[in-house]
Amino acid sequence: MIKILLVDDHEVVRNGISLLLESNPSFYIIGEVGSAEDALLFIEQQDKPDLILSDINMSGMDGISLVRIVKKIYPQIKIAVLSMIDEIDKVAEAFDAGAEGYLSKSNDFQELLFGIAHIAGGNKYISAFLSVHILEVYRNFVPEPVDKAALLHHYDITERELEVLVLISEGFTNGEIADRIFLSKRTVEGHRQHLMEKTKTKNTADLVRFGFQKMLLQ
Fold this sequence. Notes:
Layout: E1 2-7, H1 11-21, E2 27-33, H2 36-45, E3 51-54, H3 63-73, E4 78-83, H4 88-97, E5 101-104, H5 109-120, E6 125-126, H6 128-139, H7 148-154, H8 159-169, H9 174-181, H10 185-199, H11 204-213
Parallel strand pairs: 1-2, 1-3, 3-4, 4-5, 5-6
Helix pairs in contact: 2-3, 8-10, 8-11, 9-10
């Protein structure tokens, strides 16, 4: 069971998220607090959570400062930001501070559950909405056309693997990708693994970052 601490200065929001998460038997809400300061006290004085789900904008200490402090003192605790803010610099700042995930409060219920479970399992996750938004903004800053064929040849990436990479960057699961491009889930998992091996990336977030940096996702 994944023990979760909710941090949000809006009680109604906390209660709503708590009800949603506890509908999944894999999640257990061990506490709900209204500030980053109270979150630090909770962790120090009570049971340690497996994962902290925190807003960014709160009175007093903000969520990103909370991420930095928790990661310094309790590096084993996973942290996901759950916010209405979709600014790319805030997303980057959260990950730079040590967050394992960034979820939007506009996410649907199923993606929220999937993202939290993915993060709790030791992976990084960014919501599909934000991935697409980042891609759209990034396109505006591409100075010149990229020789995608040359890049694919250089990294020995097939057109099918590129198609899988694009869908991964849009937040689709292996099963969803399999349904979209008419492959088995196992084949999609194989493509994902081959992509990470060819690009020497460590996880899905790192793979998507590689795709943006090399301008394959444009």
